[in-house]
Amino acid sequence: MLIIDLFSTLQLPSLDFATLAPIISSHDHSGQSLLAFQFMSPGEEIFHLGSFRLKWYGLLIATAVLIGVNLSMRLGKSRKIDPELIADLAICLVLGAIPTARLYYVAFEWHNYSQHPEDIIKIWEGGIAIHGSLIGGSIAAIIFAKFKQISFWQLADIIAPSVALGQAIGRWGNFFNSEAFGSQTDLPWKLCIVNTNNHQCNYVHPTFLYESLWNLLVFTVLMWLFIDDNRHHRLKAGSIFLVYLIAYSIGRFGIEGLRTDSLMFGSLRMAQVISLVGIAIGSIGLLWLYIRQRKLPDVV
User: Beta 45-49 vs 52-55: how paired, if at all?
Assistant: First the structure.
């Protein structure tokens, strides 16, 4: 009876798989077949037990961190760096990245949080900015590298693929939260966001999906560079991280232009501004390495 009572308390979401992601065949005006991909979020909760609620957003972020740490430890080991050192770095990155990611988001959404300051700590409900995490994580990594007397750029090259993969995984948290979507579209692939007034679907660009796929592509390129460099030693320290900075920023700049919930500074989309800065830094860094034939400034 105890087990029956427990399962009656445990409330799992009922998923209507017909709404999730059916790939259906359609036709355009010329009669040519197209693939249509229409889907909607099943909800933000996986289950709740009493007051405990497990949400997809938190689970995906935690999964991204665990996979990223494991991958970085393996990549570090391939370059003869103690995996325990990478594990310690990962803790510092999380401690540096998550608070700054939240503060960055809150700063540009202060008009909302100023009315409900108690919501600032509710990070499990969503609302973190990737650019904020990159800034905080970079500062934490620089401090860590200085303290451990190891090259920051060597560490950056090791963690860059994990960052790209983690971003690809984490973006799906936006799907379950029905956030970070784009403007309306009539393309064959689209995301349904239910209008709260008439309960009808508004079909929008699944920008979270665009960025997830782009980050998977970036991850693939970085892993290829990393493995090739392990074999042939043709890259200079910092190159892989700089390629990540450029590649991620190019994709983010384009995708951000489709979104309707961008963090704004006046009329500027901050993600696009930071992306341009990232492209500039990455490009200057590569020119410095391969045209000027100089090493990047480091902490050791």
Answer: antiparallel
Give the pLDDT confidence score for residue 116 in this predicted structure: 86
Largest CA distance in the chain: 75
What b/e readout covers 154-164, taking b as 16+ CB neighbours within 10 angstroms?
bbbbbbbbbbb
- Both structure tokens of 51: 């007051």
Quote the tokens at residue 159.
Answer: 């963690």
Distance of CA 183 to the CA centre of its chain: 20
* Beta-strand pair 23-27/52-55: unpaired
pLDDT at 121: 86
What's the confidence (pLDDT) of residue 251? Answer: 98
Short-list 207, 208, 160, CA closest to 184:
207
Helices vs strands, H then E, count in the chain: 10, 9
Closest to 108 measured CA to CA, from 257, 261, 260, 265: 265
The count of residues in the chain is: 300
Instruction: Give pLDDT, residue 136.
Output: 96
Chain centroid to Cα 46, Å, comes to 20
pLDDT given at position 50: 82
Residues 6+ apart with CB under 8 A from 122: none
Write b or e for each residue in 66-79: b if 16 or more Cβ atoms lie within 10 A of its Cβ, otherwise e. Answer: eebbebbbebbeee
Instruction: Output the DSSP codes for 217-250.
Output: HHHHHHHHHHHHHHHH--SPTTHHHHHHHHHHHH
Q: Where are the domains of the chain?
A: 56-290
Angle at 186 between CA 218 and CA 165, to 5 degrees: 15
Structure tokens at 98: 């998550």
Please give the average pLDDT of every successive group of 10 residues along the chain, which has 300 residues. Answer: 40 42 45 64 87 87 94 96 95 93 92 87 80 96 97 98 97 91 92 86 94 98 97 96 98 96 91 97 98 95
